[in-house]
Write a structure and sequence with these properties.
The protein is α/β, with parallel strands linked by helices. It has 22 helices and 27 strands. The strands form 4 sheets. The protein has a 15-stranded mixed beta sheet that branches. Strand 14, helix 11 (about 310-315) and strand 15 form a beta-alpha-beta unit.
Length: about 650
């Protein structure tokens, strides 16, 4: 089944043109309000930059970057903390027609380096610490010929931004860019597969802005609290005021709710976008404090499935006229669909508890959605009759101006995720395969059922994660649940991991398992599910604390359900080596403290080598062990202690 909407009008103008027009229309209006230190009482201090000031900085930076050799088409790594300087740099690059390369800092250093290596950037703009990583990672950044340092330059060459901003001479006009010219390369988070570079065009970005404007009623008069820099760029396109939230950009979900409330109230924010985990913390804080936010008229959440409980909690602390929107989208296409809280709480949440999946609303104007049969390999073309009827679950495909046409220099990813369709009028369309499962109901609403790659392929049927989890999440004692499969595809053993406050091994846990089995038997999607495992804290993405690492949970569940290893297994024997090392280390130290140690150089050398391997080498492994420990349900302290004791012989087996 295909749902189509009338596309909105298009324009060939670029994003830098929009900012310049806004600056000319209202130069004294606040464009960016950002945290800047602390006031004497400890509250965050904020500063504001007007549209006129921002545009002047953009032109100044663009002039300097052009003189340094960054021009149209130059792929430029952009690593700057959220703030006016980041926005000025981004729009300066847009103005030149250069192409910023943007990577989510929450994905970890190893994945970030992979992304930068794949992009093949020619210029690099970042703070001193980022340049240190660049210098050490010569293989990753071998193509960089124009380094620009934000702040003081250290032992590397290149330019400083301050010096470039002071470049003399007349400022050139903006480059003639827009339409289908490449705007930027933004990488997917890699939370559900390898990170891929998504090509954004100016037309695509403006289409995203128009669709969000239409779906959520955005206006020039809004003041928006921003938790993601991309939404700040959209605010500057709209001509509204963006307030940067006081939080760490790599750990958005850990933002302090009291500071967010302070910013919302201080500046009378009317709109905000945030992840489900952040909004849950915000709603809990407002409820505990007995406070409301009368100015906030629109809250938008996305990035991961938004639990109905979060929507309900927000409704209790917001003004009755305020709207709460749940959006569905991806790095490759944003947004795809949207639904308001009234429809969720009044109609669709009951279906989620019965195993219908999560309703994510109707496709936004200008976007078409098609449901097709599931296939795990490439799908070169779409043919007539491929679409499934309403109610049938399949893979979600999307087409429209807000859809990225391709990945950057990644033909294999294009082959897996892009599908061509030739229309009867000979027009060619490129559809994006989201990798998500879902269906369209009779009202044209889209229901999300889970990731294609995470479906459990049991004997005789496929089980869909979000459909099954919705049934168990409706139980009042279940915080979250996650369906995983153990074994080969087609014969997988379905297991439900449960996050709950009920103690493992207690009579209450055994009673809960009985109730969950009874609940499973009442609904077709969950019928036959019998195995439930208690997990203390699901592994989730570090940035939003929302996307569950089901692949990690599956490995954990497989180890939990496997028969215990024999007493003298190879794995257990390997742990005797670090134990022997610690015994030699401590025994040697004790001997030296209480008695005369023979002066044997070999023994002394072995002791120091043992000390190096047991202390700094084991300690250096702790950052690698922590994610595996979290996935296995271990606390950070326990993981660090066991890694210091056993080293890689312990954490690599998790």
């Amino acid at each position: 089944m295909t749902t189509s909407t009338v596309p909105l009008s298009t324009t060939a103008a670029g994003l830098a043109d929009r900012l310049e027009r806004n600056a000319a229309a209202f130069p004294h209006k606040p464009a960016v309000i950002h945290p800047d230190g602390r006031e004497p009482g400890g509250r965050p201090r904020y500063r504001e930059v007007t549209y006129g000031q921002l545009q002047d900085t953009v032109e100044e930076i663009a002039h300097g970057l052009a003189r340094a050799g960054i021009t149209r088409g130059t792929k430029t790594v952009l690593m700057a903390p959220p703030g006016p300087e980041l926005f000025a740099l981004a729009f300066a690059l847009f103005r030149l027609g250069a192409v910023p390369v943007v990577v989510d800092p929450g994905m970890g250093v190893r994945r970030m380096l992979h992304c930068y290596r794949a992009a093949g950037a020619e210029a690099f703009i970042g703070p001193p610490l980022a340049h240190l990583v660049r210098v050490l990672g010569r293989r990753t950044f071998g193509g960089v010929r124009i380094p620009v340092t934000l702040g003081r330059r250290r032992l590397w060459g290149g330019h400083t931004l301050a010096a470039l901003r002071a470049t003399a001479g007349p400022r050139p006009p903006a480059a003639d860019v827009g339409g289908d010219d490449l705007l930027m390369i933004g990488f997917t988070t890699g939370s559900t597969g390898p990170a891929k570079g998504v090509e954004y065009t100016h037309r695509m970005a403006l289409s995203i802005a128009r669709q969000i404007e239409a779906a959520h009623g955005r206006t020039r008069d809004d003041t928006s609290l921003v938790t993601l820099p991309f939404y700040g760029i959209l605010d500057l396109v709209y001509g509204s005021t963006t307030v940067l939230a006081p939080l760490a950009p790599a750990k958005v979900a850990q933002a302090e709710p009291a500071l967010l409330v302070d910013a919302l109230e201080r500046f009378g924010a009317t709109t905000m976008f945030a992840s489900p985990a952040l909004l849950r913390n915000l709603a809990d804080h407002l409820t505990a404090e007995g406070r409301s936010l009368p100015d906030l008229r629109c809250v938008v959440s996305g990035g991961a499935p938004v639990p109905d409980s979060v929507v309900s909690a927000l409704r209790t602390v917001l003004d009755e006229k305020a709207s709460v929107h749940v959006t569905y989208g991806a790095t490759e296409v944003l947004p795809i669909s949207s639904i308001e809280s009234g429809e969720i709480l009044g109609e669709t949440s009951a279906g989620s508890a019965r195993g219908a999946g999560t309703c994510i609303g109707r496709p936004v104007p200008g976007t078409r959605v098609r449901i097709v049969p599931v296939t795990d390999g490439p799908r070169p073309r779409l043919h007539a009759g491929t679409a499934l009827p309403a109610g049938s679950i399949g893979e979600i495909l999307v087409e429209g101006e807000s859809v990225s046409p391709r990945y950057h220099d990644a033909p294999r990813s294009d082959a897996l995720h892009k599908v061509l369709e030739t229309r009867p009028d000979a027009a060619a369309l490129t559809w994006h395969r989201t990798g998500d499962l879902g269906y369209l109901d009779d009202l044209g609403r889209l229901w999300f059922c889970g990731r294609t790659s995470q479906r459990v392929r049991a004997a005789g049927r496929d089980l869909h994660t979000v459909r099954c989890e919705g049934v168990f999440n409706a139980h009042p004692l279940v915080r979250r649940s996650a369906l995983v499969g153990i074994g080969p595809a087609g014969a997988q053993r379905p297991v439900v991991c449960v996050e709950t406050g009920v103690p493992v091994g207690s009579a209450a846990w055994r009673d809960l398992v009985v109730e969950l089995r009874a609940l499973a038997s009442e609904h077709v999607p969950t019928r036959g599910l019998e195995e439930f495992l208690h997990h203390p804290a699901f592994p989730v993405d570090i940035r939003h604390n929302a996307k569950i690492g089901r692949e990690q949970l599956a490995r954990w569940a497989e180890r939990r359900l496997a028969p215990p290893p024999p007493p003298f297994s190879r794995a257990r024997a390997a742990r005797l080596v670090p134990i022997a090392g610690w015994a030699y280390l401590l025994g040697g130290a004790l001997w030296a403290a209480v008695g005369d140690v023979p002066d044997v150089p070999l023994l002394r050398w072995l002791w120091w080598a043992d000390a190096f391997l047991s202390i700094p080498v084991h300690a250096a492994q702790i950052p690698l062990a922590l994610p595996r420990g979290r996935a296995a349900g271990r606390g950070s302290t326990a993981t660090a202690a066991l890694t210091m004791l056993y080293g890689a012989t312990w954490w690599r087996a998790l």
